[in-house]
Every structure is written in structure tokens, then in C-alpha cells.
């Protein structure tokens, strides 16, 4: 493999050196273009039916964008390849396009399907790889750092989707892909993140990261140096912006899967204070967020509807030392909501005083110890940040998740469950956890807390 590509490099280098020879080799399936000091060779022998498209449609894009990309990604003493070969192939299996040295390979079958959609943009992406040449640092310097793959692929997709074809909006974060929106998710998702950092913090960051990568000097510290915030901070802030944009909405997939919004983002329809038909003024809706602004005048907020077996997901953001909770299977029989419904504790693990920690089933179940800290597993983010709770409350098994991390599972009414209730303060409450159906209740009298994206999906029958 290696020898082959070396040989190809040599051959294409020779083609560059003998331009007149290359010029003479023009055939219906082979076209050589010289422009602005660059030589492009378009080879379509493997897909003659694409020759016309390649020469009329693709060649102008290559001629315009290759020099642009070279200018976008300069570094001291570096000269990008001046000869670029673009070739249709029929042996690429599922890969749409690839780049190796100064050669770009295009999967003829895939291109035929994508001529009017992704075809040109994929070549722009590969041209960025031809210009990147990050492998050269390690050839010259054994101590060169490695640039992470997500960034190597994110830069071409940033240039492709945000500079070459922004009108296609092909790298948007949507309700559908929001859950996969991580800064290091690579390709167009990382492209979106890079675009955001460019717009918000440092216009030249892509150029600077490219230089570092090419010189074997990439390190995560560079983000802080260039943008003033760590990569993690930037990634969280970027993701949070998209989360807020799609807060209190359901994607089509979620609707199909049976999810329903418990909070519509604009008012408190579907809620009331426990055992009343009113809502106290301590609960307010602000900018799409359900906020407990005054815990002394809020009380427990209760759904109108009862739920039996379900999956519940919500985001909460708690104030320093704040304490709240989510109760389920709450009925009207008890004096207080907690007299009937088990409570999933919510609190600021850092400063709140209650030894029952966030995500625990109050006084009954807690996550195992984290070997790294020797303390119970804690996946919460600090007070003031959004955290996601996911509960699966099902007859066979209940599960608690905090920010995607599973804490534990249990079976309501099982021997183990009943034994734990017996030992706890709930042992003296005859109605506690006895109902298999009931309201969902948000605790409002222990501290300031905000909620959004409160959604539920009934399970079973
Ligand atoms: Zn790529």
C-alpha cells in the first residue's frame, strides 16, 4: 500500500514537471487544467458517463476552491501540493470520497446518486485534506503531537459547510441530531462547533489550529490560549445554546416514540399545586423555563394527569445549596406528596446539607461508590448548570440516570425495596409507595430551581 502511494506521488510529481506531456494527454476521460500556478488532472476513465459532469461542473469548483483553501490554511515554510489529481474509482465500497497525498478518489456509484446534492461538497472536503498534510510533522519530528481525528475531519467540514456551501445548511444542529451534538463528534457536528467558536471567540482559530496541527504542536491548551476558554467549556457552552434553542420541543422521532411534553415552555397548563386547582406565585415561566423563584411561596407542583409506567426526562438547574425533588406515583390520599410518592432527590451536591444526594431515590437507593473518589458516584454538574435526569419507572425495573450515567435500578414492591422502606423514615407511612399510578410532582419548597424539557413517555399498558 505504502509503496503504491509513493509511486503515485512520484508519477503525479512527474506529471507536474512535464506539463506539456500532461496537456497532450487530454482525452474525453482525462483532462488537465493549469491555473494560477496549480495543475489539476481530472480522470474519469472508470466512469466515462461522469466525464462531462466532472469537466463542466466539478472542475470550476476545484479551480476556484483549491487556491482559496490553500490561502485559508497557511503556515510558515509550507507549500501545499501544486498538482492535484481527482479520479473516479469503482473499487471504493462504501466510502464516498477519500484523499491520499495529492490525490482525491471519488466513488463513482456514490457520485452518480449525489451529483446534485453532496458530490461537489465532498470534493471540497477532500481538497482540505490535500492542503492539511498533518502527517508531515511526524516524519520530521518524532516528538510531534497527534491531532485528534475529530479535528482533522472537523476542519474540512467547517470549510465545506460554512464557507463553501452555507446555503445548504447541511451542518445545522437540529432537534433530530441534538442528542449527538458533542464538539468532538467529528465531521459536520465538529464543523458546526468550529463555526461557532470562529463567530463568537476567535475569527482565526481554524487557521491557527491548522498551523499547530501541521507543525505537530497541537494540544488542547491551544483552545484556552486562542479562545480564552477550555475546550470543554467551549463545547458545553456551544451545546447549551442549541439545547436552549430546542428546549420544550419534541422531534418527530420522539413524537413517534410516544413522548409527550409535560411543560409547554409558555405557561403552566397541565400543572397545579398538590391537592389544589391553583398555582402559587413562587412558580413562574421565564424565557421557556419553569422557575421556582420563591420557595417560600411555591409549594409542590403536581401534574393534572396520573402516570403508571413511564420514562421521564427533564433538565434541572439548581441554585447553590438548593434542594428539590421529583416524586412519582403520588396520590391524593396522603397529607403531603411525599407521604405516597417515592422521591428522586435533586440538590446541589456541593453545598446542600441533605446527605441524600442528587439522583438518589430518597433514603432508599444510592449509586455505588466511584473508585476514583471513594464516594458515591456523582455525575452532576455544578450548581448553575443544566443537568439531565432520566427515570425509567416500570413494573419490571426502575432505573435512574444523571447526565446519561446510570446510577442504579430497583423493583418497586420487591422484597429488597420493601426491606429498605421498612428501615427508612417511610416505614411508618402506610401509604408510601403503595400505588402503581399517580401524579408526577416537583418539589418547590426547598430552594430555587429551574426546569425545562420535561417530557414523559408512557410504557406498557
Ligand atoms: Zn475527511
The appropriate CATH architecture of the largest domain is Sandwich
Per CATH, the class of the largest domain reads Mainly Beta
Let me know the average pLDDT. Answer: 93
* Category from helices, strands and their pairing: alpha+beta
What's the number of structural domains?
3
Main β-sheet description: 8 strands, antiparallel
Shape verdict: elongated
Low-pLDDT runs: 1-23
Number of strands: 20
Small molecules bound in the structure, each named once: zinc ion
Radius of gyration: 29 Å
Helix content: 25-40%
Strand content: 15-25%
* Structure annotation, total helices: 13
Q: Remind me, CATH topology of the largest domain?
A: Jelly Rolls
How widely separated are the two ends?
58 Å
Q: Mind telling me the CATH superfamily name of the largest domain?
A: Exo-inulinase, domain 1
Can you give keywords for this protein?
single chain, about 450 residues, Neutral Protease, domain 2, 3 domains, binds zinc ion
Notes on the structure:
- With 461 residues, this protein is of the alpha+beta class.
- The chain has 13 helices and 20 strands.
- It has 3 domains: 30-132, Neutral Protease Domain 2 (Neutral Protease, domain 2); 136-245, no CATH class; 252-458, Sandwich (Jelly Rolls), CATH 2.60.120.560.
- It has helices at residues 2-17, 19-24, 51-72, 108-114, 119-132, 135-140, 149-164, 187-200, 205-214, 221-227, 231-245, 252-256, 415-423, and strands at 30-35, 38-43, 83-89, 97-100, 103-107, 260-261, 271-273, 283-286, 289-292, 301-303, 310-318, 323-330, 343-347, 369-370, 375-376, 387-393, 398-402, 405-410, 439-442, 449-458.
- Helix 3 (51-72) packs across helix 5.
- The chain is elongated, with a radius of gyration of 29 Å.
- It starts with a helix and ends with a strand.
- Residues 1-23 have low confidence and may be disordered.
- The site of zinc ion (ZN) has 4 residues, from helix 5 and helix 7.
Amino acid at each position: 500500500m505504502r509503496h503504491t502511494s509513493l509511486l503515485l506521488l512520484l508519477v503525479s510529481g512527474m506529471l507536474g514537471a512535464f506539463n506539456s506531456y500532461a496537456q497532450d494527454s487530454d482525452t474525453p476521460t482525462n483532462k488537465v487544467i493549469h491555473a494560477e500556478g496549480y495543475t489539476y488532472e481530472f480522470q474519469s476513465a472508470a466512469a466515462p458517463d461522469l466525464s462531462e459532469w466532472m469537466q463542466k461542473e466539478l472542475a470550476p469548483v476545484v479551480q476556484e476552491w483549491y487556491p482559496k483553501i490553500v490561502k485559508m490554511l497557511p503556515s510558515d515554510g509550507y507549500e501545499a501540493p501544486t498538482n492535484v489529481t481527482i479520479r473516479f474509482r469503482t473499487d471504493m465500497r462504501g466510502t464516498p470520497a477519500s484523499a491520499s497525498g495529492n490525490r482525491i478518489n471519488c466513488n463513482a456509484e456514490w457520485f452518480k446518486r449525489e451529483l446534485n446534492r453532496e458530490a461537489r461538497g465532498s470534493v471540497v472536503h477532500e481538497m482540505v485534506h490535500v492542503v492539511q498534510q498533518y502527517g508531515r510533522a511526524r516524519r520530521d519530528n518524532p516528538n510531534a503531537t497527534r491531532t485528534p481525528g475529530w479535528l482533522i475531519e472537523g476542519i474540512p467540514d467547517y470549510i465545506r459547510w460554512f464557507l463553501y456551501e452555507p446555503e445548504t445548511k447541511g451542518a445545522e444542529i437540529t432537534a433530530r441530531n441534538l442528542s449527538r451534538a458533542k464538539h468532538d463528534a467529528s465531521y459536520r457536528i465538529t464543523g458546526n462547533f468550529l463555526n461557532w467558536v470562529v463567530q463568537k471567540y476567535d475569527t482565526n482559530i481554524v487557521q491557527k489550529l491548522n498551523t499547530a496541527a501541521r507543525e505537530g504542536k497541537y494540544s488542547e491548551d491551544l483552545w484556552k490560549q486562542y479562545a480564552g476558554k477550555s475546550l470543554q467549556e467551549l463545547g458545553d457552552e456551544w451545546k447549551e445554546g442549541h439545547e436552549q434553542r430546542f428546549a420544550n420541543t419534541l422531534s418527530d422521532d420522539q413524537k413517534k416514540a410516544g413522548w409527550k411534553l409535560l411543560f409547554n415552555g409558555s405557561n403552566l397548563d397541565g400543572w397545579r399545586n398538590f391537592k389544589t386547582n391553583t398555582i402559587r406565585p413562587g412558580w413562574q415561566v421565564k424565557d421557556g423555563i419553569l422557575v421556582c423563584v420563591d420557595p417560600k411561596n411555591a409549594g409542590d407542583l403536581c401534574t393534572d394527569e396520573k402516570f403508571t409506567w413511564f420514562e421521564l426526562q427533564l433538565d434541572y438547574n439548581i441554585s447553590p445549596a438548593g434542594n428539590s425533588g421529583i416524586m412519582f406515583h403520588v396520590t391524593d390520599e396522603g397529607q403531603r406528596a411525599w407521604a405516597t410518592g417515592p422521591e428522586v432527590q435533586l440538590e446541589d451536591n456541593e453545598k446542600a446539607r441533605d446527605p441524600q444526594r442528587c439522583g438518589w431515590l430518597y433514603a432508599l437507593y444510592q449509586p455505588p461508590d466511584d473508585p476514583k473518589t471513594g464516594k458515591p458516584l456523582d455525575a452532576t454538574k455544578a450548581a448553575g448548570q443544566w443537568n439531565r435526569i432520566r427515570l425509567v419507572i416500570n413494573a419490571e425495573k426502575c432505573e435512574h440516570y444523571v447526565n446519561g450515567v446510570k446510577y442504579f435500578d430497583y423493583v418497586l414492591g420487591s422484597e429488597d425495596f420493601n426491606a429498605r422502606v421498612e428501615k427508612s423514615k417511610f416505614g411508618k407511612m402506610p401509604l408510601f409507595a403503595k400505588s402503581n399510578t399517580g401524579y408526577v410532582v416537583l418539589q418547590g419548597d426547598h430552594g430555587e430551581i429551574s426546569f425545562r424539557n420535561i417530557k414523559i413517555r408512557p410504557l406498557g399498558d
